[in-house]
Amino acid sequence: MTNDSKKQTLFEKIWNDHLVNASDGSNQSQVPDILYIDLHLIHEVTSPQAFSGLRDRGLVVRRPDRTVATVDHAIPTRSSKNGRLEFADALCRKQIAQLEDNARQFGIKAFGHEDHQNGIVHVVGPELGFTHPGMTIVCGDSHTSTHGAFGALAFGIGTSEVEHVLATQCLLQYKPRTFEVRIEGKRNPGVTAKDIILSLMNRIGVNGGTGYVIEYRGSVIRDLSMEERMTICNMSIEAGARAGMIAPDETTFSYLAGKPYTPKGEQWEKAMQNWRNLSSDDGAVFDRSVTVDISDLEPMITFGTNPGMGIPVTGRIPDPDDSVDINQKNALKKSLEYMGLNAGEKISGHPIDAVFIGSCTNGRISDLRAAASILRNRKIADGVRVLVVPGSQQVKREAEAEGLDQVFINAGAEWREPGCSMCIAMNGDQIETGQYAVSTSNRNFEGRQGKGGRTFLASPLTAAASAIAGCVTDVRMYMEA
Ligand SMILES: CC(C)[C@H](C(=O)O)[C@@H](O)C(=O)O
Ligand code: SF4
Fold it and tell me: What residue stretches are annotated with the Aconitase/3-isopropylmalate dehydratase large subunit alpha/beta/alpha domain (predicted)?
């Protein structure tokens, strides 16, 4: 089937609108296109070498006004006795100091370690209104796909590309293919956006999206809040996709209205006129399409060492011997060994040592509210360490204004300063070898939350319920009928 040239997908509209130079136009072209980048987000881990490169070549940042930096990965989440943040080690301190120095030297807006608006880059961008529909957005971070929830084309880049974008505000890219994922049906109680994306991951696999930009569509997506949409788009990269996106609608516009960095007055009206055209045309053709009905979906949890290894929380650990594919069989076997789990056993009831509630997947205010709804007036099981880490300073302030911090503290959890924290364990927040954590983050790779640590990925609801029970738990047991 050939695509009617007038009918375009959302992805094609944004791509074409940002072409500085087009190659021969085919998906398999050997020559990359050159794209203009509207917003370049920066954090401390992937930017130091890029700035050194600029310095070595005597270059400046082409558009400092389109570049925004924040600190997140290395930032400590605990204050020492004198109230200052306590860096885990010299490297963390250095990374943060370098980011702040580079931003100062190159004239870039930065939310440094003492700034009241800092936080995880993918939480800060949307909440302050830097992220707009129709933009091309890049960051030296794979979960940049989060921003696609606004109908932007947003993806992660490597450090040498960070340098390139800093210097030119452009990027060389091969055009990805388009993948339509329709989510339909009725959402059951206890089923969150996280469960939807974990079940999709399980269905299409960690390479299912490779080479594609996914556009999420369908009635379930339309009914999701912006924060839920961000959770879905955030994990697109875990399915191998270049990006994930959702066409903007009234939900998007009302989220963005009045944010500090969104257009105001006449400019807002003008922007809205453009944004309203940002959807895939009726009859536009995608390279691949999948429709998922979530009417039977239950809360999900991962048991293995990639995010595609998920099962319903009521399910049993799969048996590697049931896999026909030898690679899959071996991967499963290796995962179960690392995780210390046995084929056929029930996942619910498995003891845990820690719970992490936070990250750019599930560290927003609605995630904290969800966790608090389960933890309110309850106590965390003895011996389970629970870290609640808001995704940004703003999320922290909002949570405290609602008294959520007290709900967490009364339940026995640690209420921390914002940052990536135990999602990646770069800042010293980690679990010990052999320990099990239920985590609301997006990656369960070997050692992700600390050397030898084992991660079960789940929603904030499931994480909170598991914290109370001291083991992997079906949150529906704790929900009002
Ligand atoms: C440190 C950074 C490069 C990395 C990423 O690209 O995603 C991190 O954010 C992660 O989640 O693994
Ligand atoms: S919260 Fe986790 S996934 Fe998100 S940017 Fe930080 S380390 Fe990466």
Answer: 12-470
Q: Please report how many Cα atoms fall inside a 13 Å half-sphere around the Cα of residue 204, on the Cβ side.
A: 27
Please indicate whether residue 43, judged by its CB atom, sits closer than 6 Å to ligand 2. no
Task: Show the domains of the chain with their CATH numbers.
Answer: 10-174 (3.30.499.10), 300-477 (3.30.499.10)
For 25-79, write each residue's pLDDT tens digit: 555 557 899 999 999 999 999 999 999 999 999 999 999 999 999 999 999 999 7
For residue 3, pLDDT beyond 70: no
Q: Which residues of 7-41 are buried (b: 16+ CB within 10 A; e: fewer)?
A: ebbbbbbbbebbeeeebeeeeeeeeebbbbbbbbb
CB of 442 within 6 A of ligand 2: the answer is yes
Ligand 2 mutation pick, 139, 143, 364, max ligand atoms within 8 A of CB: 143
Spatial strand order in the sheet of 454-457: 414-415, 385-388, 354-357, 436-439, 454-457
- Whole-angstrom Cα distance, residue 39 to residue 41? 6
- List Cα–Cα distances, 346 to 194, 302, 349, 471, in angstroms: 21, 12, 7, 12
Contact call for residues 446 and 305 (beta carbons, < 8 A): yes
Residues near 213 by beta carbon (within 8 Å), at least 6 away in sequence = 11, 153, 176, 177, 178, 179, 241, 242, 243, 244, 245
The pair of structure tokens assigned to 401 is: 């204004």
Which residue, by CA, sits nearest to atom 3 of ligand 1? 141
Q: How far is the CA of 141 from the centre of ligand 1 (A)?
A: 5
- Judged by its nearest atom, the ligand closest to the C-alpha of residue 139 is 1
- Pairing state of beta strands 67-70 and 109-111? parallel
Kindly identify the ligand whose nearest atom is closest to the C-alpha of 121. Answer: 2
pLDDT of amino acid 1: 45
Per-residue pLDDT band at 24 (split at 50, 70, 90): low
Average pLDDT of the chain to the nearest whole number = 96
User: How confident is the model over 132-176, as pLDDT tens digits?
Assistant: 999 999 999 999 999 999 999 999 999 999 999 999 999 999 999
What percent of the chain clears pLDDT 90, i.e. is strictly above it? 95
DSSP 8-state assignment for residue 294: -
Annotated binding site: 360, 420, 423
